[in-house]
């Protein structure tokens, strides 16, 4: 086995183990005490908003677990649309920050009521990136030359582009030449009869 393939196998195994243990990550909230204060040898945590450490940890882990799984999906996804996964990642991250803010400062997060309005520019940016990636991929797959768009000189007021008008004129000129040539051939035919 080569060194590269064993590293790939190890990474894949670690990711699989993390995904398999994700329900246990969520259920870690059960080890926290019921009550407003959690004291240990490192620090003391006081839940001001929820008034119960187990409840606040249930809320945090309810946001952290899907965020963790979405981050794994984002970093391991090989599809062209993987940037779209940033949308739910951003949403869960925003909710987690809002939840922490609520509990630490005992104030409702100012941006909590209009969450989608604050996340909309982020969503629009991500969707724009995904659309540009899609255009580039379809350009490569189907051989569409995007530089032709500059040559079309599309007018807003004209239903037919300048390029199409040029093609129509060229076609009409070819038809008229072919018609004149066919008349000459018919006349030669009748003369020989």
Brief summary of the model shown:
It contains seven helices and two strands, in the order H-H-E-E-H-H-H-H-H.
Characterization of this structure:
This protein has 193 residues and is mainly alpha-helical. It has 2 domains: 3-146; 151-192. 67% of the residues lie in helices and 3% in strands. The chain has a two-stranded antiparallel sheet with strand order 1-2. Strand 1 and strand 2 form a beta hairpin. It is elongated. The model has no long low-confidence stretch (mean pLDDT 78).
Question: Helices and strands in order, then pairings?
Answer:
Blueprint: H1 3-20, H2 22-26, E1 37-39, E2 44-46, H3 53-76, H4 86-105, H5 115-142, H6 148-151, H7 162-192
Antiparallel strand pairs: 1-2
Helix pairs in contact: 3-4, 4-5
Considering the chains and any ligands shown, give keywords for the structure:
2 domains; transmembrane; mainly alpha; transmembrane helix; membrane; elongated; two-stranded antiparallel sheet; 193 residues
Number of strands: 2
What is the first-to-last residue Cα distance? Answer: 87 Å
Low-confidence stretches: none
The helicity comes to 55-70%
Gyration radius (Cα, Å) is 33 Å
The largest sheet has its strands arranged as 1-2
Overall mean pLDDT stands at: 78
Shape: elongated
Judged by helices, strands and strand pairing, the structural class is: mainly alpha
| Total separate domains | 2
- The proportion of residues in beta strands is under 5%
How many distinct helices?
A: 7
How is the biggest beta sheet arranged?
Answer: 2 strands, antiparallel
* H-E string: HHEEHHHHH
């Amino acid at each position: 086995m080569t060194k590269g393939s064993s590293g790939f196998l190890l990474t894949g195994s670690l990711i699989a183990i993390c995904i398999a243990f994700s329900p246990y990550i969520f259920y870690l909230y059960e080890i926290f005490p019921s009550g407003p204060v959690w004291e240990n040898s490192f620090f003391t945590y006081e839940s001001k908003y929820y008034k119960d450490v187990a409840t606040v940890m249930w809320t945090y882990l309810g946001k952290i677990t899907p965020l963790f799984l979405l981050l794994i999906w984002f970093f391991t996804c090989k599809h062209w649309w993987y940037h779209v996964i940033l949308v739910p990642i951003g949403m869960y991250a925003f909710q987690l920050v809002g939840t922490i803010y609520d509990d630490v400062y005992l104030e409702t997060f100012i941006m909590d009521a209009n969450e989608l309005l604050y996340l909309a520019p982020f969503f629009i940016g991500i969707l724009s990136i995904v659309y540009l990636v899609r255009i580039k991929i379809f350009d490569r797959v189907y051989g569409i030359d995007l530089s032709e768009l500059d040559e079309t000189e599309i007018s807003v007021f004209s239903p037919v582009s300048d390029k199409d008008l040029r093609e129509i004129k060229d076609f009409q000129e070819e038809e008229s030449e072919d018609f004149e040539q066919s008349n000459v051939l018919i006349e030669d035919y009748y003369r020989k009869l």
